[in-house]
Amino acid sequence: MKLIWRYAVATATVLISYTIWKLSMYLRVLTLDENHIKYDKQLIGLNFSTVLADWSNLDCREKEILLGKQMCRPECKPGYFSLDGFRECHPWLMCEEIREEVKQTGELVGSGAVKQVYLAEWKGYQIAYCNLTTASYKDDFHHGLEMIKSFQHSEFVVQLVGYCHSDDVMLLEYHPLKSFDNMNSILSQETFSHFNTVLLRFQLCIRYVEILNFLHTGPLGTYVMCDSNDLFKTLSQYLVTDDMSLVVADLDALPNVDHKSGITAKCGHRELIGRFVAPEQLWPYDDTDFNDDNMPGYDEKTDIWKIPDVVDFILGDIPGSDAVRFHLFKIHRKCKEVVAKLRPSTLDIIKEYKLTYSYFRNTRS
Ligand SMILES: *[C@@H]1O[C@H](CO)[C@@H](O)[C@H](O)[C@H]1NC(C)=O
Ligand SMILES: *[C@@H]1O[C@H](CO)[C@@H](O)[C@H](O)[C@H]1NC(C)=O
Q: Per CATH, the architecture of 92-174 is what?
């Protein structure tokens, strides 16, 4: 009798502590706010010297990685921009200012089919100068510009500094760490070695899915990130900011889908091949050749299919990355469902990622 009693107490204790632990995990996840995930300075163990000025309405970020300090800038209304150290917002630069005040350095920092990106200078500030490559992409260039303009309220989108329609030019904030596809080479540099942790890499993965979530569920509708036919192309749409976060920089190929009215998307007019793209993006008929008119459309779930490959690449091959991969196995298997409808939403994935993040964060500290 005594033995049974003991067993009962022991089992109850285990059950209760397990429940409390599980509950505390969920609570932690619920209270994990944006900043918590974004830049875990405590975790990386850095010492920030704070240089807070007494201006109101400032957006301040830790920029240890390049500048060794916190930098602030005012938050701006649409039509205005600000860079680190600005005391007030400046209206977007227009044709005349661009022609007269922007100095070219001639250094090419990025290029795609639609536009080239050069490093330029305006009043001592580095900015990105983007111009059209060939006239045949004029529409895409201006569509991309309109998208960037209409998404300026979002922290997920690169900041517009100015544009000139008649010259086919737009200016964007310059991010010296460049695009997301450089992540492994950035983190493998000696200077950045203290950032090369699995948790920081995982934070970037969470941010990546948060950006997709913004594109899929934003106030303006559901958009599919179409510039994503291979891993490199997908990663190169995002820029790494110097507070170790991400922004989306290229919105040239961002079709809208609307489930209610049955509007689907297609990424280009050519046949897509390979295992990186989602199965529904492949030509479905074996017995006939590809014909764009007969190619069925698809939706934002193509982005979900690609998430495991992106995350796998960003987690890299460092201590702890396999343990994180193991925890993500189940959700990633769901992302690879052949039937698009069965794949999880970005929000489901973010929830699971944050749970895993907080688990690894807790076991480390
Ligand atoms: C942090 O940096 C400041 C300024 O460089 C220094 O005075 C302070 O001792 C440092 N604190 C720690 C805990 O290292
Ligand atoms: C784009 O800008 C660069 C740098 O000023 C310039 O050299 C190049 O000729 C421009 N390209 C076009 C197509 O205007």
A: 2-Layer Sandwich (3.30)
